Amino acid sequence: MTQPNSAGARFRAALQSERPLQIVGVINALGALLAQRAGFGSLYISGAGVANASLGMPDLGMTTLDDVLADVRRITRATDLPVLVDADTGWGDTSGIQHTVTSLIEAGAAGLHLEDQVEQKRCGHRPGKVLVSDEAMVDRVEEAVAARTDPQFVIMARTDAYTVEGLDCAIQRSLRYVEAGADMIFAEAMADPTEYQQFTRRVPVPVLANLTEFGRTPLFTLDQMREVGVGIVLYPLSALRAMNQAARQVYDAIRQDGTQSKMLPAMQTRDQLYDLLDYHRYEQQLDQRLQQDPDHGS
After folding, report:
1. How far is Cα 249 from Cα 261, in angstroms, rounded to an integer?
2. Contact present, 112 and 86 (Cβ < 8 Å)
3. What is the pairing mode between strands 111-115 and 154-159?
4. Residues with catalytic annotation?
5. Distance between CA atoms of 75 and 81, rounded to whole angstroms?
6. 3-class DSSP state of 218
7. pLDDT tens column, 157-212
8. Do residues 152 and 139 make contact, with C-beta atoms less than 8 angstroms apart?
9. Strand segments (E) across 179-298
10. Does the global pTM surpass 0.90?
């Protein structure tokens, strides 16, 4: 049944209103509010972000669907912005992928991406990646499409074939994934704008470029990506990396100096936090309830 205001529908609308669509990664509900305040139209939950920030683990296929769902639910409760979710390889076989899709829709996600690595996957910008056959990935995509309870929910297929098999194989795989029903393609770890251009000219659905820092893909500008036909530009861990560095500097200063005073200019103030959270409105509602309670103060 079509849901005109579903998260998936909002994601598709965002893609139509902004090309390329900029998507930023968030690791929690407060980060989602900050990204919304900055004016972004869509958010991303990275598998590495869940593994690193929520579990303190490396991104090597060790997180579970439940780990991801916990973060998805918190974020989608805090904002109406559509959220694209990294679903790794889908967490299982046919029944596992079906459960993944329905669970993410129920949690309020707008879409997911599945990748064509083996289940014990690696970061897309690391060596040693191993791919499943294109037939096996087609099965993953077909199962995900068939499991949708909302036809607007986005099924994106990620291919890591560029660094393993080359550009042409990555394109051929992507065409098969589109034929299987993928709405969009995540083209991982490409290094040259002309390669993106070849990719987008041959693949007839929106293509995502992952501009993660310190990886194989240079930090292209939005204009560069627009010129070569990229439909979506992803910044999956930019804020997390900055937050981690800032936190380390604060902890080091407190430990070394015995005070946090010199770090105050780098901190969000109490007033800024309260403004972001609409704190005073919640406080006023609490005060009203307390005043209406006949047992208040007893």
Report:
1. 12
2. yes
3. parallel
4. 44, 59, 86, 88, 113, 115, 123, 158, 188, 210
5. 9
6. coil
7. 999 999 999 999 999 999 999 999 999 999 999 999 999 999 999 999 999 999 99
8. no
9. 184-187, 207-210, 232-235
10. yes
